[in-house]
Write a structure and sequence with these properties.
mainly alpha
Length: 223
């Protein structure tokens, strides 16, 4: 499997550059709230969902209920349900590794798995597995480095919780389909005006999911 590991390492370098930096931001922010490297390690190993990990820091510090945390997790990561379904047939070939492949399917990993071509003389399943595995390792390493930095240095963490949001803004700006962006912005603004800043997020996410589903259905009917 040496060739598969090497080729997967090469393919995952772009994700490494982003995950280590974002993981560091998460680790520093988590440490600033009083949660040491053990929490950073456990969350990155067992949760491994960048955006919800940043949100989880707020949930931990505000004493959110289990129901609230579960709802936030489901709605924020609902996009995984959409692109995850497209990988189920492919993952059926992974046997015992199937469950890890499903668990480790982040946005960036999904982009690599559907966009990269398996190199010649490489086993596709092992190549895909190592891409997924290395990507999670990058996130774990970044989280631990950030937690270590946060424990040793006094750092102003203002703005660090915006790191993941900044990534999604860049993705939106490079997208060619901005009508989805307008939909999300309008629904969020309306919910903010109706429910207020402390309660608008869940209604906005529900509205966005419904709106996107409606738009997607309409686009498919015109294909």
């Amino acid at each position: 499997m040496k060739k598969e590991m090497l080729e997967a390492l090469k393919a995952s370098i772009p994700v490494m550059m982003g995950y280590i930096v974002l993981g560091m931001a998460f680790g520093i922010l988590l440490e600033s709230k009083g949660y040491n490297w053990i929490y950073a390690l456990l969350m990155s190993v067992f949760i491994y969902a960048g955006s919800i990990q940043f949100v989880a820091i707020q949930l931990l510090t505000t004493g959110a209920t289990f129901i609230h945390a579960a709802m936030m997790t489901l709605l924020i990561n609902a996009r995984h349900l959409v692109y995850g379904l497209s990988m189920l047939k492919k993952f059926n070939n992974f046997k015992k590794l199937k469950f890890y492949m499903i668990f480790s399917l982040t946005d960036e990993t999904y982009s690599l798995l559907v966009g990269v071509k398996t190199p010649k003389d490489c086993n596709e399943n092992w190549f895909y597995f190592f891409i997924s595995f290395f990507n999670q390792c990058y996130w774990i390493i970044g989280s631990l480095i950030g937690s270590l930095i946060g424990s040793l240095l006094t750092i102003n963490t203002t703005g660090l919780d915006f790191a993941m949001t900044a990534l999604f803004i860049v993705i939106v700006l490079t997208s060619s389909k901005h009508h989805y962006t307008y939909l999300g912005f309008i629904i969020s603004l309306v919910c903010l005006m109706i429910f207020g800043k402390d309660a608008f997020l869940i209604p906005a996410m529900i509205g966005i999911i419904m709106g996107l589903s409606f738009m997607y259905k309409g686009e498919q009917e015109h294909v």
